[in-house]
Amino acid sequence: MSLGLQDRFGIGPGSVVATDLPNVAEGILLHLACARLGSAIATAKNEDMLRKIPNVKCAVATGETSWLMPDSCILAGSGDMNDMLQYRSSGEGDDILDMDRNEQDSERALGFFNNPKALTHGSALSMGSQMLEHFHMVPRDKVCVSITLYHAFGIGSACSSALLSGAAIVLPAVGGLRGCGVPSQRAEVTLETLEKEQCTLLFADTHTLKALHDNSLREKLNDANLSNLRGGVCKTGSGTEILNDTVELKGVTLATLGKKK
After folding, report:
1. Which end of the chain is more exposed for a tag (fewer CB within 10 A), N or C?
2. What is the CATH number of domain 119-258?
3. Which domain of life is it from (predicted)?
4. For residues 40 and 5, is the Cβ–Cβ distance under 8 A?
C-alpha cells in the first residue's frame, strides 16, 4: 500500500490522506502505510476542519460523499483498493521505499483527528507505551478496539500499545466516525466480539460501557463468557491520564482515562 500511495498519488513526507473508513483492517494498513511514507491521515468527520489542512493529496473513501474530496480517490471495496493492497512497482529492480528519506522523527504528524493540530508519532507512541506498561501487555494478548481508529485514543493508546507489545488488534464491526454512532449497537457488537475472539483487553468509551449495562443487553451480558478478559480502559473525557476511578464489566476492573482535575 505504501508503494501504491507513493507511485500512483505522489504521497510522501508532509502529504495528507483523507479518509472516512470505519474500523476495518484497511484502516490499520492505511495508518501504517502513511506512517512509513512520512505522511499523515486526516479524518472526514469535520468538513470545516478538513478544509483547513494543507497538502491533502488523496482520499480513501467508502463512496461518493459531500465532504471535501481531492481529485485522487480510492474507493473502499473497489478494484482500486484491491490493487493498492497488492501493488507492485512497474519499475525495474526491487520495490524499495527510501526509508532514509522517510524515516520518522517524533514530531512528524501521524494524523489530524478532528483537529487542525496534528497528533505526532511521538505522542502516539508515548500513549501506547503508557498502556503497555500499565497492563504488562504481551504478544498473546488480544486487544479489542471498540473506538474509532481515527482518534488519539484509538490509534495511540489502543493500537500503538498492541503494536509495541506484539499483541493482536481485534476490530468490532462498529461505526462512529461521524459522531458517536449508536451506543447500543456498538455495545452489542463489542460484547459479541469480546466473547467470540476471547479478547484479553478492551479499549472503549463511556457510552459503550454504559450501554453494555442497559436492560436491553442484560441477558446477553449475563450469558456471555468473558473469562479471558483481564482488564481494559474506558475513555471518560479529554486527556490521556490514567485516573483513580475505575469501572467494571462482569467483575473485571477497567481503568479510566481522561484529564485529572
Report:
1. C
2. 3.40.50.980
3. Eukaryota
4. no
